[in-house]
Every structure is written in structure tokens, then in C-alpha cells.
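Entry:
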Amino acid sequence: MGSFMEGLSNGFKSLLDPRSKKSRSGFFSFVQEIAMDLGTANTIIINSDGKIVVDEPSVVALDKRTEKMRAVGSKAKLMYEKENPDIRVIRPLRDGVIADFSACEQMMRGLIGMVHSGRHFFSPSLRMVIGVPSGSTEVELRAVRDSAERADGRDVYLIFEPMAAAVGIGLDVEAPEGNMIVDIGGGSTEIAVISLGGIVTNSSIRTAGDELTFAIQDYMSSQHNVKVSERMAERIKIAVGSALTDLGDDAPDDYIVNGPNKITALPMKVPVCYQEIAHCLDRTITLIENAVHNALEHTPQELYADLMTNGIWITGGGALLRGLDRRLEAKFQMPFHIAEDPLRSVARGAGIALKNVDRFTFLMR
């Protein structure tokens, strides 16, 4: 009888132990393992099976009176720039780092809630791997870790985004050879040369997709006298954004922009072609080119030779800008490759790291 009770007690202890493998699924699921790309524009969450379970805009809507969350993700983005005086719609991350700590915590809770909503009687504690910019300060890293812990994170690991992107596109980051990643996200561009499981040299700038969007806003105002919202500028970038003024057969059709005249407030319809958007984005792209040049300047000679053979990989949403790889190849006389799924490279890499937390020495706790 005693041994039976002891066995029963030990069984309950194993169920209640957050480290127990038995607690990974079912009614008594207390620990959940997720990987997260906490991006300025979008947040992607991958579960322990390597499946993308959340892919939502990094936006949260709060009630101004109670500061409670009204919506998160795509539902909150529908309210962005359309809110009434009772609602505050926030993008908690700017330039790749947390700008509003409280809003970020609520957003993370809401997005994580999408993963296990309705599947657990108890709210599980989390083992998390989160991608962060390689240029983050200790304060910024602490802010990400604190937000994750307040959102029920029990074991929180951080991974630099270029490293995660390299893992996510299938590069052997632990090999004794150089690989270079240019990760152009929403708020920051991360450039890193990787070898032997570490970042040898890197360059991180707060110039990326958002700056491209703001450049389009300014251009439409100054050249066409039409006001466009941030969301409209984003649509223009997707429709006719280009890094080159000559795309040949890949040229997109003109995009019709609807908006008010900034002087008369009367409605306007303005056709926009990719060539003029390429001109307006040129200065921002040049800043990214300068960051790539800076990273190459500080690359050891043997690794530089590897880059000439292996080429340089472009990931992140900025990789989708038409003609960017061709422009960079012409500038640096090296091959540039667009990752197969550039928007999810960091998230997939973080997901692989989640399965190898005991092996990957480049993870930070």
C-alpha cells in the first residue's frame, strides 16, 4: 500500500513538474515550448512541432480608460489610424526594440493566448526562444526578457536575429566557414558574418522597412501634394516598391493612390509607377548598402573569401523589395541570394534553436 501511494505521489509530482515531458500535451499540460520572432511589423510564433501557429501584425489596441486589451494582431491593425477617442492602438516595438513595455507585455500575452486558447484548463508556463536584434543593448535585451517573463515565460532564451535567420534558411552556422546574413526587418537591418557558431562581425542599423514606408509618405506629400497614411504607404511599397529604376519584364503595373490634397483637402487619384518609388527609396537603400560595406570592411580575409564563394543571404521583409539583390550584386560584385521564405527565416531558426537549447551555445539566457 505504501509503495502504491508513493508511486501515486511521484506520478502527481511529475505531472506538476514544469520540466516533465508528460506535461507537454493533454489536460495536465503545464509547460509549452514556443519560438517567437518578435518583430516591429509582425510577430511569428512556432510551436514545439516546428509549425507556425501565429503570424500576426505586432499591434495591440487598448481601452484608454482601463488600459485593458481590446484587440491584438490583425484585429488591432484594422483599427490602426482609424481609432476613436476611447481606443489607443499601439505598435509596441519601434526600430526593432520595445518602445512601450506595458503594451508589449499585453500584446505578447494576447498572441501567446492564440496558441493554447481552449486547449488547457490551466495557463501553461512557457519555455521560449525569442529573436532579438544583434545591436540590442543590455537594457533592450532585459526589456525583452522581462516582457516574456511577465507573459508567463519560465525559461526564456534569446537569439540574435541574424543567427536565427542563418539557422532558419539551413546554413551550417557551426561550420568553420563564413556566411553572411542581411536581415532587413521592419525596424532594423541586421548584418552579420557567422562562423563556428558565433557572430564574427556585425552591423546593426535602425534603418529598414519602416524607413522605406516613411520615405514614400514624404515623397507623396512633397511630389504629389497628397496625404497618405502609413498603411497606404505600406500598400504602395508592396505594389510598386523597387530598388531599381529598370526592372525589365518584372516591372509591376502602376498603382492608383487615393487620398486628400494636402492643401485643399479635395480627393485625388494619383497613379504611381515603380521608377519614381525607386528614386524616393534610393537614399534609404544607400544607408543599408553602407552598413553592408561596414560589415565587409571588418570581415577577416579568410571569411571574406568564403563569402565570395558562398554569396550573401538576404532575409526579412525587405528582401521582397524588387531588384534589391541585383542592386547589391552590382554594388559589391558578390552573389546575393534571397532566402526561400524571407519573412519567416528568423522564426524558423528560433524554432530549430528551441529543439537544441542544450546544444546551441549561442543562445542567451
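Residues 274-297 form the longest helix (24 residues).
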